[in-house]
């Protein structure tokens, strides 16, 4: 993926946005799309969560204090990926009140952060989901919801490996725009290494646990992520950042989660 970005150079953001769009899922209908995609990936494809035969959605108690993003395939309107940013429960005096902390606690593993990082300054990237037909770069027929057997072009498939990284670029942009700089994520080492090749360098802050494979808690300061980002991926990041900033101002749904001062900071 890094070789592909390097070869394409600064025009990669235009090519990516020709094929995909970024959606701040602020409305009920857009969040329903997120929950439906998560059900397809987490429940039907991967078996991580139980099937919801009635509603075909996957959601949990953390979604009410999360911001959600979608990557949408422009030509079909299909959801190509999603992620959420979860904020701490300020009433949770026993810790951060984040999913990652619960997972580590259940496995008897501690998250070790610098003492200067306050719980109220943290957030977590989680529920990153990409459906199977956007995970393969092979040109072959795939069963796509609402389209039967559908074939994506070779040009389109060349960009599929960027969807996962683009979701983390969305998270980096979002956390910077709202001033929530200290970010946690539960990841496999291989994905952490993929992000590092783009200059997004997370630090491991827990021992590995067996949670949907071997994963560990990772931490990054959003400001360091921006500073260290490779020049080859920076134009795409800036385009995502600009687009999300516009959507936040237009949709105005951030204050309900983070307080009214946050939107004022974005607008100024």
TrEMBL record:
Q: Cite the InterPro entries for this sequence.
A: Acyl_CoA_acyltransferase, PEP-CTERM/exosrtase_acylTfrase
Which key words are in the record? Acyltransferase, Membrane, Transferase, Transmembrane, Transmembrane helix
What one GO molecular function would you report for this record? Answer: acyltransferase activity
Q: Which residues form a coiled coil?
A: none
Q: Does the keyword Plastid apply?
A: no
Where do transmembrane segments lie in this chain? 159-183
Q: Which NCBIfam families match?
A: exosort_acyl (TIGR03694)
- Its source organism is Salinicola acroporae
| Name by which UniProt lists this protein | PEP-CTERM/exosortase system-associated acyltransferase
**Key word Ligase present:** no
